[in-house]
Design brief:
By secondary structure, the chain is an all-alpha fold. The protein contains seven helices and no strands. The chain is globular. It starts with a helix and ends with a helix. The mean pLDDT is 79.
Length: 173
């Protein structure tokens, strides 16, 4: 494996808003109990695997992609995803940098880069990228679900009650 500028540039562009978010913590961030350590470690493995393989393994269209056309399609998708991601972060800050806007929604912002890496892995047929990105996506979603559940415990209880009621109705029929 060698360094890939083609993988490094989109990775860097996706990391800039995340790094900026580290320095601008939302004022309304609540005190939450620590995240599940297994989910946290798996999320870190997935995230750093994504970053490492994007920067080292995808290569140019002759190495990582099966055709020049597929590489061009990937490059256009990359530009669109990066632009969308930046627009979402800009919107987040213009709305007032609220904690719930990042974690309280159904799809947290941090899943977008991992989904992009998944698409890159599929386009370049890099199975390690696919594995690391799926791990990151699943762990990010579990983490966000845990945060959402702690932010809105009543909603989580309502969802669990509805699911239990649905299971009981299915069993009773």
């Amino acid at each position: 494996m060698k360094f890939s500028i083609i993988g490094f540039i989109p990775t860097l562009l996706l990391l800039i808003p995340v790094i900026a978010a580290c320095f601008k913590t939302p004022a309304d961030k609540p005190e939450l109990e620590d995240e599940n350590i297994i989910v946290f470690i798996a999320k870190c493995v997935g995230r750093f695997g994504c970053i490492g393989y994007m920067c080292l393994a995808i290569g140019d269209y002759k190495v990582g992609f099966s055709s020049k056309l597929l590489f061009i399609i990937w490059a256009v998708v990359a530009l669109l995803v990066i632009a969308l991601y930046w627009v979402l972060w800009i919107r987040h800050y213009k709305k007032g940098n609220h904690f719930e806007d990042i974690y309280g929604t159904g799809i947290p912002l941090f899943i977008i880069p991992a989904a992009f890496v998944l698409v890159t892995g599929i386009f370049s047929m890099n199975f390690m990228l696919i594995i690391f990105s799926v791990l990151d996506i699943v762990c990010e979603y579990c983490s966000a679900y845990g945060v959402r559940k702690r932010l809105h415990p009543a909603e989580a209880d309502d969802e669990a009650a509805e699911e239990t009621e649905k299971d009981e109705n299915e069993d009773g029929e």
